[in-house]
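S1.2 Input.
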Amino acid sequence: MADIVGVNTVDQLKANISLSASGVDGLNGEKVKAVNLGNWLVIEGWMKPSLFEGIPVGDMLDGAKVRFKSLSSNKYVSAEDGGSSCVVTVDREVASNWETFRLWRVSQSEFQFRTHNGQFLSCGGEGASVSVTSNYPSSTETFSIVRSSNDRVHIKLSSGTYLQVSSGNELKADYIGIPEWEDNAATFEMTFEGGKVMLGEYQLTNGYGYEKATEVLNEHWSSYITQADFQFLSENGINTVRIPVGWWIAQDPNPPAPYIGGSLAALDNAFKWAQEYNIKCIVNLHAVIGSQNGWEHSASRDGSVDWGTSDENIQQSLDVIEFLASRYGSDPALLGIQLLNEPKSSEVPFYVLQDYYSKGYNIVRKYSATAYVIMCQFVDTDPTELYHAIAKLGLSNVVLDLHFYNLFHPKFDKMGSTENIEFIKDSRKAQVDSLNTANGDGPLVFIGEWVNEWSFRDGSEENYQDFGRAQLDVYGSASFGWAYWSFKNVNDHWSLEWNIKNKIMQL
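S1.3 Output.
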């Protein structure tokens, strides 16, 4: 994210003091002091890896990037030009994008292979060459993988015919019989590019299959966030929860495969518990169909970003907003609805996002005149342009959501504890102040995600306490407030619960 550095005038300081003193409607004169209930209704495997431990063939989940090297020729399988030329050869000595294929998992042994440009490997049958001809996989784009113990593999069609390297360096389905594991033309070495498997909602549900995924998720939903957690939050200064949801919640209890019904009942429970403990709810559309950023927390199947280029996907997302607004618009626990989480600027055109936000706002207003409508900035971009674009619309109860992490950028890798804290007090504070005072009719400012963690690895308990205090002070000056990411996490400093119980942060 770009940092805005400016000098406050006296008038700006007065305006900032006024903003700091004012509260958010519905919070009894307070600003939002929230926590994200991340990894509850939208799975993020890094936050609880044990959810994935029972998946068979767990290294070959949707989105895993694989490469195949012929043991007979010592060359890689390649989709020329990333797939657009329709040619599949086995003639590359070095592997790069053209030689990397993203898995679509059909079963524990059957897979489809998506090329760099988005098409799929295809084979018409016995004796045919493998080509790249389809954007929509079917049986002719489905292959079985037979693995040895050392990641040597054979690739075969449903008919039983194996692929092998031809004399012309083509990949053909013409090996008859069952190949041995020595260095023959039908044996390949399979390696994984990047070393990291995607661990999101899609990978979990498709990896387990319907019955087991239903069992795993129902246990998770009922135990990960409970009524007792809402009591704990209420007793420790939290007045709001930001709840990530996925697009499939609007089709509960029978969402399309591989998603599992049941998250809607959990969300209903959250609203009930929130009202009991005087906590407000922000419902955040965290994952949209097609994915807005390609990351696992958007439930992407393979890292592709297809949301912003599809009118159908965008309309379906607006339908989800309508579903949420109609269901919770009059609920006394509702504080706001967030239309989208972390769109990626390189993949989603600015005008598309503006239009979506405008339409989403109008939908929410059909069901609530007062609920806050929250609009998230692009990832890693200066939020000023979006701020002013929203301000020009002249809307009421609108919020701009910023995400602040002293992570995920090389500039933080060399910062010690003092430098991290100074960055919060100087650069972050200047940015918050600038947006707070940029336009009296503009959106409120919300630090919707932040964490008491950094790239610095030698921090003492006192260092973390100082870092936490600095963030609470600066982000508390945002005109709408803040939301910590997240309530629970196997990584201690990412967990607000752990920070509170260990007296690292006191709210």
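S1.4 Remarks. The chain has a mean pLDDT of 92.
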